[in-house]
Amino acid sequence: MIDGDWSYFTPVRLPVNWEFEGDAGIHPEIEGITGRNVVLLIEKSFSRLERILAKVLKAPKVVRRPMHHTQSMLWELMDGVRNFEQICDIMLTLYHEDISPVHDRIKSYLEVFVRLNVATVLKPREEE
What we know:
By secondary structure, this protein is α+β, with helices and mostly antiparallel strands. The protein has four helices and five strands. It has one domain (about 15-30, about 35-115). It has helices at about 50-55, 70-75, 85-95, 100-115, and strands at about 10-15, 15-20, 35-45, 60-65, 120. The strands form two sheets. The protein has a three-stranded antiparallel beta sheet, covered by helices on one side. The two termini are about 25 Å apart. The model has no long low-confidence stretch (mean pLDDT about 90).
């Protein structure tokens, strides 16, 4: 995905439906960060035949994709304000060795989010 130093790249959630479930877990003292588990709500797009079969079989129109608690925390922290290095510092403070090596683990999570088309990673602006 991105080669080199990720330190100043900024991960951002794309517009996608999501919700919280469960009780608040471990979380930093940052306003708006709850520590609750996140569930992505991904709408299915059906072909004509699939739409007919889905109607007959009463298939759900939305896929609920629950996340692991560390992925949920990353999701909450990806607000477009914090860069990769800041997020890694917060995650390491919260989860210690459970998320080690933190940079590799966070990169892996971000790559999954990008593949699912629910997040992107912005490059830092170059100084003029």
